[in-house]
TrEMBL record:
Its main location: cytoplasm. This is U5 small nuclear ribonucleoprotein TSSC4. InterPro entries: TSSC4 (IPR029338). One of its GO terms (biological process) is RNA splicing. Keywords: Cytoplasm, mRNA processing, mRNA splicing, Nucleus, Spliceosome. The keyword GTP-binding does not apply. Belongs to the TSSC4 family. One of its GO terms (cellular component) is spliceosomal complex. Residues 200-212 have a biased composition (Basic and acidic residues). It comes from Spodoptera litura. Protein associated with the U5 snRNP, during its maturation and its post-splicing recycling and which is required for spliceosomal tri-snRNP complex assembly in the nucleus. Has a molecular sequestering activity and transiently hinders SNRNP200 binding sites for constitutive splicing factors that intervene later during the assembly of the spliceosome and splicing. Together with its molecular sequestering activity, may also function as a molecular adapter and placeholder, coordinating the assembly of the U5 snRNP and its association with the U4/U6 di-snRNP.
Length: 212
């Protein structure tokens, strides 16, 4: 036990000697650095670093106008400024029965009927002759055969541009329009006619042999 106490005392003595040697203790007050003051050396260093950027346009621009000028000014609403332009309605004298769906549909139908009657009255009456013949405005009906048929679209072909072959555009999922069957039928008829004529010629070959 005595050996432990001796070692403890010697340890604390060495700590005290180290504390006196380096002048450090709990009572020493830490010096508070004043961040408001700038050292002359650091100031000169910063000034030297910022010197090449003088006269250049900064990317961080402050708005020249005031914030109040940038914001939209509060304007007075028009219905308060010019109340004579507006007509005010009140629903105080309206009963719940008048606001039902049935009354709304009835009033809507009545309004539509009234508009139709006004439109019918404003239309000009047809001019009649003494023989009670009604003259109507002539209408020109163009038959479907007279209408211009759309020009057939020519198939796109590859184009040679600037040493490159540009292929026609192809849209995925869109099929090309097939040719009309009329041309195919004409070709078939012409082929059938040609084949029938050859058949007839072949059948008449034996007649020429008998004449000889």
């Amino acid at each position: 036990m005595t050996s432990f106490q001796d070692r403890q005392k010697s340890l604390f003595n060495t700590l005290k000697e180290a504390e006196d040697q380096y002048s450090f203790s709990k009572t020493n007050k830490a010096t508070h650095q004043d961040y408001g003051t700038i050292d002359k050396y650091t100031y000169k260093k910063l000034k030297h670093e910022m010197k090449p950027f003088r006269g250049r346009e900064s990317i961080y621009k402050k708005p020249q106008a005031n914030i109040r000028e940038c914001l939209r000014a509060k304007t007075i609403p028009d219905h308060i400024k010019n109340p004579q332009k507006y007509k005010y309605y009140s629903l105080a004298d309206v009963t719940p029965e008048q606001m039902s769906d049935s009354t709304n549909t009835a009033t809507a139908l009545a309004l539509i009927r009234e508009l139709e009657e006004k439109e019918a009255a404003t239309q000009k009456p047809m001019e009649t002759d003494l023989d009670d013949g009604v003259f109507k405005k002539p209408t020109f009906c163009i038959s479907s055969s007279m209408k211009k048929s759309p020009k057939p679209e020519e198939p796109e072909k590859p184009v040679f541009k600037s040493n490159k072959v540009v292929m026609p555009e192809y849209v995925v999922g869109v099929t090309k329009k097939k040719e009309k069957k009329v041309n195919l039928l004409k070709k078939e008829n012409s082929n059938n006619a040609a084949s029938s004529s050859t058949k007839v010629e072949l059948k008449l070959d034996h007649l020429f042999e008998d004449d000889e």
